[in-house]
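Researcher: Here's the sequence for the chain we discussed earlier.
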Amino acid sequence: MPVPRAAKTQRRTRIQEEKEQIILEAALDVFSLHGFKGSTIDQIAEVAGMSKPNLLYYFRTKEAIHRALLDQVLDTWLDPLRELDAEGDPVAEIRSYVRRKLEMSRDYPRESRLFANEVLRGAPSIQEELADLKALVDEKAQVIRAWIKAGKIARCDPYHLIFSIWATTQHYADFDAQVRAVLGPDKSGEGRFEDAARFLEQFYIGGLQLR
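Model: Thanks. This is the structure I predict for it:
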């Protein structure tokens, strides 16, 4: 993770750490709304409620702020997949994975859009992390293949199963405005996530159960 500029000059104080978090929180708002290219240091400083020179004391560039945010997101984004347990019941494990991914879309929509925007621009800042992601997905694909071989779930392509779970759960964060507009005022409240969870459980578990 890039070290904030303040940390290079002296030991950080509690106030400095708090300032850095204020900057990162403001930057998350700006980047998730405008994307990397559409965001500026001035916008981040305005949302953070500080001057541009003051902000640049903590982070030298827009790239440094962006990278720090990505590191924070990636640190937690893959936790649900890491927790897919080879020794667990396949149906329960996949149901839990779908639920946790949907909960992350509910609780961390800005982080989801930050990551999506990075991938859409070719993922220039996270190439090494994508290699780590591939290794993790390869590992969990082997788990799913073992379940299939043992006759515990129906045959499927493990990679496309994982991709489809990402797509259907993260949709509720990345396209939230569209989801709420289409559902209308009666169905677009917080209950939409539970409605989605029930449908997705039925969709995936029904498709993976042996006939």
